[in-house]
């Protein structure tokens, strides 16, 4: 599957909205016939009529412009002509202004105002370039507001609303879907995909576009930082949910990794659209962007018509969302960038920079993260690791790298002294999976059930050993340290340092890997020889024949049947009696069931042998994440390994979002990156029960039931179930199939039917352990969540960087002991000796 456009980010949204408005404005005004002079300047590329054949000079012009007979010409519309075009529309009695025009125009004005406020923050810098940049923003906004006023004459009286006198609050989202009803989106609101136009088509196809200006670069930067900060705060809130016990470690880690992948895509798209930052010789894109922003600051922003972005003390903030107000240095990750440059590029020492313990821990993790995927450790698509590796090895500072490392540090600061809980949860889950694998290895007689189990046994031993390696923190940390020394980018020694104990996100990704591996192994094993499938048909037959009390349910098997689908398990409706029991189990096992048809006549009575036509039905992976991460090929086709979703996080996000979003939602409008991240997180959480359900354990219980029935059959009915055919391995399935045939009344047996005894064996197992797997699954789910803090009803604290981050590294040695006071009045002394 190809990657659909994933991110409907802020810049693309407003660019499209502006383009739609310009297209409508130019088409509608041109149709009045009063502004033709606007379209006759040098900005109009060769226009080709759609009907008829071009002749003479027109054909030469079209050929020179590279136009085909039905090509669309492009006309650049200067912003200064907007008032002329709007006046022409307002003065034409036949022209109308659709409601979508006003909706789009309001949103575009609001977006541009937000951008202008961002650049109008007070600063010590004041130069000609900054003044020109702010003036450009101000002029364009004033122009759009004037156009709104002119077109307002065409708006129904009840809808008249002036952008000058009315604050343009964000338009609330109207397409919220069920998965997101608990959270209000912070996005600016929606613009129509298109603006309906009532203008008759002209003889020529023309695309009207706004002339480009330097202000677009400023607007693109503003939108990029806004989207990246939205995602950054969403990740930090996710780790707060983890600390409160509202979300598991795996879901938190996968959500963070998906958000970082989205930011990388946004960053790369920005670079492609703005090569002035990409082509810097140093490849330090983030520094070039932040320099551009700082050079654009001006004091002239005070007293303008822009909306107020400050607090009660009129302090300017670069980002406001709800109660979160972040200053520009926090938004642009200034301190983190400064720290990384000083240590890994300028090669300054810890002592020289007077680093805090928090900074040391962060930098040590960055130094060791590139080593976390080497040697015997397998880690796929870890964005923080990718960012650290790209920075240290390729010496690049793209914006996505800075944001990845900043968000990693945000996570550490959010969890604080509770960072080690991630490693504790990972160890607990690892021990559980080792025990599950060992239960399989300890099961007697598996070597007699075909070569498949010999292959599985070797793989299971390797997977168990791999988990053991991961949870051996001392040995693993030694590997990371050795690999770090080989890279030449050693930060320095920190006593008793452990990467996994400082990185719950990395623990969460390792946890996700081993859980999904176990889930796939168990499902594949259960599918391979049809043991659970046969047990399900036996269970159904025992229920249908009244051999089980009505109130006695095999809860574990019922859950699995529900997940797989009853029609899939039973090849249609569940058989209710007679010949259907034998026929349906045969079909499910991939065997021919023709001899159980109503008009069957054997050509060789007593000698017919069932013909194998295929393998047992393969089970679906219950966890959707696992299903998307692996190509499930038909039995006869060679497995191809990992899928595109496994290798590309964005494809996984796109697929899960398509699965879980409300069907009533209009896919054509698209979702923002923040909306998609929220759906993705909820989809990952919904996978938790499926991953916690131990199919391997159910498989072993079914195996024991079938083995007990097999042993009984060959002892009490040796002529019907001879040892030669039914004593070893997979023939245990055949015993049940033959037994179910007896219920049709067509088979003549030497001995009495063994079905009543088989029903008793199954009933005993259900009464003793019928819901054991589900109960264990609930315990597993509970153990993956730990409530670390009890502040569910408290207001969210500020995510603003701490005060000590405002002091640049190179200034610290110039000052003596510095003491900072936090919000609680406690003193922090990060630099210098204690007082």
Task: Describe the protein in words.
The chain is mostly helical and 835 residues long. The protein folds into four domains: 10-212, no CATH class; 228-419, no CATH class; 516-783, no CATH class; 802-835, no CATH class. The chain is 54% helix and 3% strand. It contains 34 helices and six strands. The protein has helices at residues 10-31, 56-65, 82-91, 99-119, 128-151, 215-244, 249-273, 275-278, 285-296, 328-331, 334-345, 350-353, 357-368, 383-394, 399-415, 421-442, 451-471, 473-487, 499-502, 504-528, 531-544, 555-564, 566-570, 579-588, 624-628, 644-647, 649-660, 673-686, 688-692, 695-716, 723-726, 731-742, 755-769, 772-783, and strands at residues 73-77, 206-210, 319-321, 324-326, 818-821, 827-831. The strands form three sheets. It has a two-stranded parallel ribbon with strand order 1-2. It has a two-stranded antiparallel sheet with strand order 3-4. A hairpin with a 2-residue loop joins β3 and β4 (324-326). α3 packs parallel to α5 and α21 packs antiparallel against α24 (579-588). The protein is flat, with a radius of gyration of 34 Å. It starts with 9 loop residues before the first helix and ends with a strand.
């Amino acid at each position: 599957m190809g990657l659909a456009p994933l991110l409907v980010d802020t810049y693309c949204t407003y660019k499209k909205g502006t383009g739609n408005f310009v297209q409508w404005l130019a088409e509608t005004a041109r149709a009045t016939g009063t502004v033709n002079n606007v379209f006759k300047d040098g900005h109009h590329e060769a226009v080709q009529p759609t009907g008829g054949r071009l002749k003479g000079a027109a054909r030469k012009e079209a050929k020179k412009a590279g136009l085909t007979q039905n090509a669309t010409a492009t006309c650049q519309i200067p912003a200064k002509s907007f008032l002329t075009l709007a006046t022409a529309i307002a003065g034409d009695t036949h022209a109308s202004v659709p409601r979508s025009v006003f909706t789009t125009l309001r949103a575009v004005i609001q977006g541009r105002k937000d951008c202008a406020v961002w650049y109008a923050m007070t600063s010590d810098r004041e130069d000609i370039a900054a003044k020109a940049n702010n003036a450009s923003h101000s002029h364009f906004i004033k122009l759009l507001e004037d156009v709104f006023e002119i077109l307002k004459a065409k708006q129904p009286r009840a809808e008249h609303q002036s952008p000058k006198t009315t604050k343009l609050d964000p338009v609330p989202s109207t397409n919220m879907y069920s998965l997101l009803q608990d959270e209000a989106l912070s996005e600016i609101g929606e613009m129509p995909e298109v603006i309906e136009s009532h203008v008759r088509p002209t003889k020529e196809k023309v695309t009207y576009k706004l002339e480009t200006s330097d202000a677009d670069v400023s607007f693109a930067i503003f939108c990029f930082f806004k989207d990246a900060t939205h995602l950054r705060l969403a990740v930090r809130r996710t780790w707060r949910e983890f600390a409160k016990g509202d979300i598991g470690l795996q879901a938190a880690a996968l959500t963070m990794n998906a958000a970082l992948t989205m930011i990388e895509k946004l960053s790369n798209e920005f670079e492609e659209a703005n090569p002035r930052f990409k082509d810097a010789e140093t490849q330090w894109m983030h520094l070039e962007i932040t320099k551009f922003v700082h050079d654009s600051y001006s004091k002239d922003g005070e007293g303008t018509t822009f909306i107020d972005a400050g607090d009660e003390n009129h302090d300017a903030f670069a980002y406001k969302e709800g109660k979160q107000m972040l200053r520009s240095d926090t938004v642009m990750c200034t301190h983190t960038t400064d720290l990384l440059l000083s240590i890994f590029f300028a090669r300054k020492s810890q002592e020289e920079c007077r680093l805090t313990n928090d900074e040391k821990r962060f930098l040590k993790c960055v130094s060791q993260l590139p080593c976390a995927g080497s040697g015997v450790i397998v880690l796929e698509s870890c964005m923080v690791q990718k960012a650290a590796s790209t920075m240290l090895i390729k010496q690049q500072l793209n914006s996505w790298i800075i944001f990845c490392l900043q968000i990693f540090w945000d996570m550490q600061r959010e969890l604080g002294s509770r960072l080690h809980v991630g490693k504790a949860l990972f160890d607990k889950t690892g021990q559980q999976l080792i025990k599950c694998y060992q239960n399989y290895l300890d099961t007697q007689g598996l070597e007699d059930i075909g070569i498949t189990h010999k292959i599985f046994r070797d793989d299971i031993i390797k997977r168990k050993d791999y988990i053991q390696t991961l949870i051996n923190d001392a040995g693993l940390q030694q590997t990371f340290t050795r690999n770090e020394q080989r890279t030449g980018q050693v930060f320095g020694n920190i006593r008793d340092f452990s990467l996994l104990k400082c990185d719950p996100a990395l623990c969460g990704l390792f946890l996700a890997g081993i859980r999904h591996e176990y889930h796939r192994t168990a499902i594949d094993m259960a599918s391979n020889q049809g043991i659970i499938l046969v047990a399900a048909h036996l269970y159904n037959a025992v229920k249908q024949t009244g051999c089980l009390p009505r109130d006695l349910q095999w809860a574990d098997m019922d859950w699995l049947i529900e997940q797989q689908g009853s029609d899939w398990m039973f090849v249609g409706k569940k058989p209710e009696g007679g010949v259907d029991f034998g026929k349906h189990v045969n079909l499910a096992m991939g065997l021919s069931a023709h001899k159980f048809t109503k008009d069957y006549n054997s050509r060789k009575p007593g000698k017919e042998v069932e013909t194998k036509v295929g393998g047992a039905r393969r089970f679906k992976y219950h966890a959707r994440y696992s299903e998307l991460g692996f190509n499930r090929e038909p039995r006869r086709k060679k497995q191809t390994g990992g899928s595109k979703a496994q290798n590309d996080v964005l494809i996984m996000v796109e697929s899960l979002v398509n699965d879980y979003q409300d069907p009533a939602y209009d896919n054509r409008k698209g979702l923002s990156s923040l909306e998609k991240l929220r759906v993705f997180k909820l989809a990952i959480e919904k996978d938790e029960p499926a991953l916690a359900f131990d199919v391997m354990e159910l498989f072993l219980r079914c195996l024991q039931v079938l083995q007990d029935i097999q042993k009984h059959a060959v002892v009490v009915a040796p002529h019907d179930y001879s040892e030669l055919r039914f004593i070893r391995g997979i023939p245990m399935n055949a015993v049940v199939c033959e037994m179910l045939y007896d219920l049709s009344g067509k088979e003549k047996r030497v001995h009495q039917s063994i079905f009543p005894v088989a029903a008793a064996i199954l009933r005993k197992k259900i009464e003793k352990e019928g819901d054991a797997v589900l109960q264990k699954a609930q315990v597993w789910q509970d153990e993956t969540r730990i409530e670390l803090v009890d502040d569910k009803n408290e207001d969210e604290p500020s995510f603003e960087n701490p005060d000590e981050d405002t002091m640049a590294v190179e200034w610290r040695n110039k000052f003596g002991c510095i003491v900072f006071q936090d919000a609680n009045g406690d003193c922090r002394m990060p630099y210098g000796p204690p007082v």
